[in-house]
Amino acid sequence: MKKSKRIFTNRKIEERIKTGIPGFDELIQGGFPRNSNILLAGAPGTGKSIFGMQYLINGSEKYNEKGLLVTFEQKRDDVIQQANQFGWDISKLEKFGKLKIMDIDIERINDRTSNDLRIIIRKEGIKRIVIDSLSTLVVNAPMYAKLSDIPINRLIANKIIISQPVVGDFFVKKFIYEFLNDLKGLNCTSLLIGESAQNSEYLSRDTVSEFVCDGVIVITFEALGGEFSRSLMVRKMRATRNDEDIHPLEIGNKGIVVHKIVK
Ligand SMILES: Nc1ncnc2c1ncn2[C@@H]1O[C@H](COP(=O)(O)OP(=O)(O)O)[C@@H](O)[C@H]1O
Ligand SMILES: [Mg+2]
């Protein structure tokens, strides 16, 4: 009997959300998978906030997707000023309802903050979210947690001594799982900025967000041959055959550009 010919078709790749950052989308088959949570990790000064802003600006200017920047790190005037340096007019985009900046004082965060954000995201039809930074948000998670959430019985059953670090760690992890899960339910593509701790085996200070997120991008800033230079690497990306090289990253006068490596 004649064997039937097998036909191989390319599996359909998930819909992609383009960042529009030159040189970046091609590393991940065209962009972030729609409705994913992506962690952008790196030390201070590596360019994470600029990357996040560029993702939102391009979203509203080129791809007709409304963006929300939630920042605990900068005041809105500083965000606007930093964006101006790259020719991005945040005030205009905000005026036309294409972008929203929320600078939230860390003191004002409480157990209702997640829910308040969810309401705004739904009401305003937000499609792209940047949280700057997840690290700042979660570090404070124990402060706005409810004491009734502590699983005292479970801790006792496992003979875990109820100490401040144990309870704090529990709240941080619980908060991250719930927060990222909530974002998933909103049909948005989210970039979560994470401050990396130095000399740690983990990429994030909370040690869990790199496992919970669908994708992880790392930016480093290192001395190479006597000069400091930035580079970017995609550590993981759900449903994606991602590039695995380390790429030079440059902050130019129009924002971030990711360069090809010369092999
Ligand atoms: N207009 C600019 N041109 C070139 N580089 C800039 C410009 N503005 C800021 N930078 C660089 O970007 C760095 C800050 O980037 P940022 O995204 O705020 O870092 P992070 O959020 O990772 O701490 C600055 O330390 C500076 O080196
Ligand atoms: Mg920053």
Overview of the molecule:
The protein is of the alpha/beta class. It has a single domain, classed as 3-Layer(aba) Sandwich (Rossmann fold), CATH 3.40.50.300. Helices cover 30% and strands 24% of the residues. It is built from eight helices and eleven strands. The strands form two sheets. A nine-stranded mixed beta sheet has the order 5-4-6-7-3-8-9-10-11. It has a two-stranded antiparallel ribbon with strand order 1-2. A hairpin with a 2-residue loop joins strand 10 and strand 11. It is globular, with a radius of gyration of 20 Å. The model has no long low-confidence stretch (mean pLDDT 90). Bound molecules: adenosine-5'-diphosphate (ADP) and magnesium ion.
Q: What is the strand and helix layout of this fold?
A:
Layout: E1 16-17, E2 32-33, E3 37-42, H1 48-62, E4 67-71, H2 76-84, H3 90-95, E5 99-103, H4 113-124, E6 128-132, H5 134-139, H6 152-157, H7 164-184, E7 189-195, H8 209-212, E8 215-224, E9 227-237, E10 247-252, E11 255-258
Parallel strand pairs: 3-7, 3-8, 4-5, 4-6, 6-7
Antiparallel strand pairs: 1-2, 8-9, 9-10, 10-11
Bound molecules: adenosine-5'-diphosphate and magnesium ion (MG).
Highlighted features:
263 residues, 30% helix, binds adenosine-5'-diphosphate, two-stranded antiparallel sheet, alpha/beta, binds magnesium ion, Rossmann fold, globular
